[in-house]
Amino acid sequence: MDFTGKTAIVTGGARGLGLSYARALALGGARVVISDIGADTAGAGSDASVVLAAAEALQAEGLTVIGHGGDLSTNEGCEQLIAYTLEAFGQLDILIHNAGWVGYQNIADLDAAFLERAMAINLYAPLWLCKHAWPHLLHSSAPRIILTTSDRAMYAQYEQTGLVAYSAGKMAQLGIMNALSHEGLDAGIKVNAISPVAKTRMWGVTDEPDELKPEWVTPGVLFLASTQCEDTGYIVRASNGQFTATRFTENPGVEYPRNLARIKADSAEAVAAAWPRIKQA
């Protein structure tokens, strides 16, 4: 796909999925800013050399990519990334929030520091990034925002014990997607999400995987970032080079908020009696 003349930001862009997205966008002609704090697998610490090395490697391929090593857990850090991008390239067309962290802590053990780390990258960062990117995206001819969710959060059968904070943050990004897809509708800002399955360091994988490769997710992200994507408010699930799109849709016949067009019940006992039909409605 042709991204000539476009400027993109990819957070978590120095490794894994983010690096694959950034390379593909740049190969398509985009100017790309990869932002990565260089945290360890526990989501802690920082190492600016990680993103600088990634940017230099892409530059060696002849691609227009620069690195940013700032902290996106704060309003100020997100504002600085947008300003850095505008200073370097003068515009912003595509914002991909890929940065994430998988940490395990059972609900009984949940502590404030752990929760804050999960919320910082999965809730605060996308909100602050979108806030500061928004006025610049309004000037783009094809503005695109892509957030990142997870099948682990969306589907109960894929949940794992200890992922309560992670799941809360990944579901939060779907709420942001829905709200901003509505807010950006008249301006043409398309806001969608990717739910990727890929073997990266988040899985503890450091060698090249023979399945679930990050680059097999990338075509879905490129489509969402492109002018060919005219939809908004969709979740693209991607795994092993396969893609399916889903979204939150209302049942037919509903006249919200007064008529759900479903099972009537006037007491808790009536709800209990009708529960098998309510579950199927």
From TrEMBL:
Gene3D superfamilies (alphabetical): NAD(P)-binding Rossmann-like Domain (3.40.50.720)
GO molecular function: oxidoreductase activity
Assigned keywords, A-Z: Oxidoreductase
Keyword Endoplasmic reticulum: no
Similarity field: Belongs to the short-chain dehydrogenases/reductases (SDR) family.
Descriptive protein name: Uncharacterized protein
Source organism phylogeny: Bacteria, Pseudomonadati, Pseudomonadota, Gammaproteobacteria, Pseudomonadales
